[in-house]
Each structure stands twice: as C-alpha cells, then as structure tokens.
Amino acid sequence: MISTLLVAHPWLTPAAFALLVLVGPRLGRWLAGRPRVAWALCGVSLLPVLALTLVPVDRELFERCAVQWAFPTFGRVEMFANVVLFVPPVLLAAVALRRPWAAFLAGSAASALVELVQALVPAIGRSCDTGDWLSNTTGALVGAALAWVALRLAVRTRDGAGPAPQPGHAASAGSGRR
C-alpha cells in the first residue's frame, strides 16, 4: 500500500527529505533545551518505523532474506523512503541525548534488529534485506548530521553569537534601553 502510493507519487519522499533537511536543524535547535519534548517526539516518530517494518502483512514470502548492497537514490523510491524513515527518530534522539554519534549507532543497530526480527519471524510476512539496513543507516547518518548542526546552532545562540534579538523580544529586555 505505501509502496504503491510512493510509486504513484515519486515526489513525496524527496519532498519529505528536503523538508527534514530545511526544518530539522531549526527544530533541533529549539528542542536542544527541551530534552523531554525531544524524547516524546522521538517516540512518536518511531511509530511509523514500527508500523512499516514489523506490523504483520498478509503475503507469501518467496525469499526470507535478501543480500544486496544497492545505495539509495531519489529514483529508487522504496529505498529512499527507508532513508527518510530513520532521519526523524535519530535527529530527535541525538538532540535529546546531545550525542549525535551515539544516536547514529543506535539507529543503525535498531535497523539491524528490525531486519533480524524480519528474518527470524516469517509469520509477519516481511523479509529482511541488507539494502533496507543500508538505507536506514544512511537515514540515521543524515539524522545525526542534522542534529549536530542543530546542537551547534543551539550553542551559538546560547553563547550570544547567534542572530541579534528582535526589538521588543524578551532577550532584548535587559539591553539597557528604556
């Protein structure tokens, strides 16, 4: 069902990716001082991951586990969707932890765990694929990189090197003007 939608509208996944790249660092900067909110959003962002990877589907498996190392590109709709799927949870976890590298490793490990479950539990009707793991890990890397940018922006803003406060804004109240 999702694959059919993505093939019918191939612009959806690149548009979602572009939106994540544009909004992710700004949202991450805002969330840097709000780890509870970041964790809550991370939990919500994991729901599509679970639904699209572990919810049983009614189909016959012809191959239990595929070994392939194709790199995801815009033209490979399903593979690129696997990239986009892992960007938000890793971005949000990295901001909450303040450790992009740890969140990247956790995202890659979570993807490997999903593929292992798909391989060991054929009753869910899903087959594991090393290409999915590679795509998910690429998404985890993008999410960690966006979180790194967000955390740098948060430090810059906190240290006063960020944009100047706007007149009438709470940050400019102590500027000495009356």
Q: Name the structural class.
A: mainly alpha
Number of helices: 6
**Coarse morphology:** elongated
Radius of gyration: 19 Å
Overall pLDDT, averaged?
86
Q: What number of domains?
A: 1
Strand content: under 5%
Counting DSSP E segments of at least 2 residues, the number of strands comes to 2
Q: What is the string of helix and strand elements?
A: HHHEHHEH
Termini separation comes to: 61 Å
Proportion in helices: 55-70%
Low-confidence stretches: 171-178
Instruction: Tell me the strand order in the biggest sheet.
Output: 1-2
**Major sheet size, sense and barrel closure:** 2 strands, parallel
Domain VanZ-like: 69-149
InterPro entries: VanZ-like
Protein name: VanZ family protein
Transmembrane segments: 6-25, 37-57, 77-95, 102-121, 133-151
Summarize the structure.
By secondary structure, the protein is mainly alpha-helical. The chain has 6 helices and 2 strands. The chain has one domain (2-160).
SSE blueprint and pairings:
Layout: H1 2-8, H2 12-31, H3 35-53, E1 65-66, H4 77-97, H5 100-120, E2 128-129, H6 130-158
Parallel strand pairs: 1-2
Helix pairs in contact: 2-4, 2-6, 3-4, 4-5, 4-6, 5-6
